[in-house]
Each structure stands twice: as C-alpha cells, then as structure tokens.
Amino acid sequence: MEINGRTRTCGLIGNPVEHTLSPVIHNTLAERFGHNLVYVPFPVEAGRIEEAVAGASALQILGLNVTVPYKGEVIPCLREVDSLAASIGAVNTLVAVPGGYKGYNTDMEGLYRAMVTEDIRIADEEIILLGAGGAARAVAYLCAVKGAQRVYLLNRTLDKAQKVAEEVNRSADRQVILPMALADFDSLPDRKFLAIQGTSVGLAPHVEDVVIDDEKFYARIHTGFDLIYSPWETRFMKLVKANGGQAYNGLKMLLYQGIIAYELWNGVEVSGADADVVYGKLKAHFI
Ligand code: NAP
Questions:
Q1: Helix, strand, or coil here: 27?
Q2: Superfamily of structural domain 109-249
Q3: Side by side, which strands form the sheet with 193-197?
Q4: What's the CATH number of domain 8-105+252-283, 3.90.550.10, 3.30.2130.10, 3.30.70.1170, 3.40.50.10860?
Q5: Is 241 among the catalytic positions?
Q6: Which residue has a Cα nearest atom 3 of ligand 1?
Q7: What are the tens digits of pLDDT across the range 125-164?
Q8: 274 lines ligand 1 (CB under 6 A)
C-alpha cells in the first residue's frame, strides 16, 4: 500500500505493545479491502492515557485497540461506552465519534465467534472457568449472556471469584456463576465439562506451568479452551488432550476481536475467506 495524504491511521495503545500481533490483523485486512489505512502500535507511559486519547482524537485517528494495563483506566477518557463494555468494565476498542471516542469490548464477542467456528456450545452448558482477572470476568459475562446453565468460577483468590460472581449474577438476574477456590476442584459435580482457561498461568516463557496440576481434574473436561495462544499448545491443553478431550488455544479469539474492531472502524463485514487469510498469517508466527 502506498502511504499518501489520505491515509487513515488506526493503532494499539498499551504498555508494553512491542510483541503485539494486531498489526498483522489490521494491515492484512486493509490490504484485502483496498482500504487506505495503516495500523501501528503506540506505547503509552503510565499516567498518560488521558493525554493519549485526547491526542489521538486531535490527530483524527480513526480507531484504537486498548490493551493491558489500560482496558479499565481508559473508560473515563471516553465520550461514550457501549452498554456491554460498561457492564464488563473493560474496553478494548475505541471508535472515533464527534469530540472523542466510543468504547467497545470486542474480546468477548471475539471469543464467542472463535467458539462458534470450532462448534463449541455455551448455551445450556455446565462450564468451568479458571481465573477471575480481566479476561475471565469478560468470559463470565459472555457465558451468562449466551445462556450457560452454570459456570463454576475457580480462582486462586476466592474473594475475586466471589466479586465477579456477584456482579455477573446481578446483571444476569440469575445465579449462573458459582465461585469456588481453585483448590476445591475435587468437589465439582461428577460429570464432563467445557473448561475455559482464563488465567495467565502457562503463558510463554513459563510454558511448563499450569493452574491445576492434578490429572483427575482433566478427566472431567470434554473440551478445553485456553485464552493463551503463546505457546501454541499450553500445558493445560496438553493435559486436556492426554485425558481424551479436545483442546483449543486463544489465537482465534485474538483474530476475531481484531476483525470485529476492524468492522466497527470501517463499516464493513469481513468474510470467512478473509478471516482465514489473516488467521494463516497469525498462525505462521507460531508454527
Ligand atoms: P489478569 O487480569 O492479570 O488476571 C490473571 C488471572 O490469573 C487471575 O485470575 C489470577 O489469579 C490468575 N493467576 C495468576 N498467576 C497465578 C498463579 N500462579 N496461580 C493461580 N492463578 C494465577 O490477566 P487477564 O488480562 O485476565 O489475562 C489472562 C490471560 O488471558 C492472559 O494470559 C492473556 O494473555 C489471555 N488473554 C487472551 C486474549 C486473546 O485474545 N486470546 C485476550 C485477553 C487475554 P488471582 O486473582 O488469584 O491473582
């Protein structure tokens, strides 16, 4: 693509941003659509998120992704916040509106689209969710909104699991999330579950770490979905497979959160064929 006087800019704000794969997603889509658009990372120093958002608006940057540690901190800097993102309390996509930006959460819908493409059901399922941090909180909302029958929310710090459960149950107006300490997994009902791994345990370079080490736990999982995609196959995924389950990593979640952001910025619909091309380029970074 030739950069010229009409080129629009999108980007990522966060800290750190050096290892991001988002430029692969957006610059490939811009090329496929023939859009005159570039996507670049913008590291933002601690305490400067408000300046960064105001500066981006002054420069007429079309859209931004927001990553760690600013997904919550960015909210007061926005003109509007989509109702779903507001209830999750996390924004990962900013779309230009007059005078500033509107915030969305495409992580959650991205995970949902990723699951749909893998034929993984949430509706009426009994689900184990590991973790109660920012990502797991969004997953808990997703499960509630998409009609999960019950979600056993297991976290190292029980208080945090209880807080997430209270918030999501109140918002869903039903007792769908059941908080538990990680150590209590043995008291789960004796049946097979979809398990979503939403902690940061096992992320490269700590590839041998896993949040629950006991093989007995993995015998209860028919499908394991790890939000981590680096390494390509986490120890959690290996243990699920070794015990007869299917296992998926989080790369398609990354893909679809990006695709949904691109669709919001450009008012287009990304085809399955274009999604496949982008996924192929992302995957090439791992295998
Ligand atoms: P976070 O807010 O920092 O939460 C971390 C979670 O991991 C907490 O539940 C924490 O438990 C748990 N944890 C950390 N160290 C632990 C340990 N040693 N033992 C047991 N539990 C431990 O992080 P996040 O933003 O939610 O991200 C979580 C993961 O999701 C990351 O690996 C990230 O890469 C991934 N992610 C992927 C995508 C994607 O597009 N695929 C998008 C977003 C996030 P405590 O509450 O007890 O501290």
A1: helix
A2: NAD(P)-binding Rossmann-like Domain (3.40.50.720)
A3: 177-181, 150-155, 126-130, 193-197, 221-226, 246-248
A4: 3.40.50.10860
A5: no
A6: 133
A7: 999 999 999 899 999 999 999 999 999 999 999 999 999 9
A8: no
